[in-house]
Amino acid sequence: MIRRMCLLALALVMGAVGSTALSGCASINVNSLPQPGNAYSGGYDIVIEFGSVLNLPDHAKVTLDGTNVGVVTNVALRDRRVDVTARIDPSAMVPANAHAALQQATVLGDVTVALEPAQGGQQAAPPLKPGGTIPLTQTTTPPQLEDTIASMANFVSSGSIQRVQNTILGLNRVMPSDPGAVHAMASRVAVDLSDLSDNMDNVDKLLDGAAGTAEVLHRRAGQFRHWFTPQGMLGFDRVTEDVTVAIATGIPRVGSFYSEGFYLVPFLNSLADAIGTLQHSKWAFEKEYPAYQGLLTDVFLPADKYPAINITSIVGPDGRELSGNVQDVLRILGVSP
Known about the structure:
By secondary structure, the chain is α/β, with parallel strands linked by helices. Among the domains are: 38-142; 144-176; 309-337, no CATH class. The chain is 54% helix and 14% strand. It is elongated, with a radius of gyration of 50 Å. The mean pLDDT is 79.
């Protein structure tokens, strides 16, 4: 009896020890084991906000311009976003306006966090400080694998490949079989494209004109809407009816004038001669006009504005200058006794 009690106690002790060992082994997983490569233990942490990181593995690499600069250390789910904490090498400077994206080097490769400096002419930003954050507006989340497979399945099953094949077959049927003709056609297309590239300014003017026309139409959209109302359609009907009646009435008259209007030929000839004479008179007037204009502006108008005679010199019969003796000049003129 005592032997059985000892065996039972020993079994209980062994079971307790075994369960403890099993629970300890259960708490160990692959991610808890040391990972090969640089752990960047002396680096600093930054937080990158993503909309989704469904395919991002633990300890994923972080690259900056294609160079490994860090590793993902934590992934935390927040309200409508995911915060990815990355340990960055202390010698790496991540710009504050850097763009982050989840990328794969190959189709079946691991997902990495790729950091790229801002492009598009933006100025260089200062580096992120430890604990800094790249906001959600500067990150790109790739589409889910299920969505990609669904889009590919839709493309394959919708007959798009068959339509592309039919298009290629149709092009092959319309293309000439003579290689020389194909070369001539390709040369003509090249010339047309070259001419188009040389006249892009005209294309820009055409597009500007189209944009201006569209803007005018947009501003007068209310008037166009009125045209297609019942009142506008009634106006169209009345205008069409009146114009149709006028045309129907005038066509027979035009026909009679065309067939019986020979008596107007002398009148038209005289009218042509009169117009020619007026044209020659116009040319003659344009030729004489500058002379009359000079006479009017240089002679008549100054004399009319200042009606006076300025005597600058008086020379006697013997050649003497008489303008110096004012009294004699006035006596000669009869002004002074």
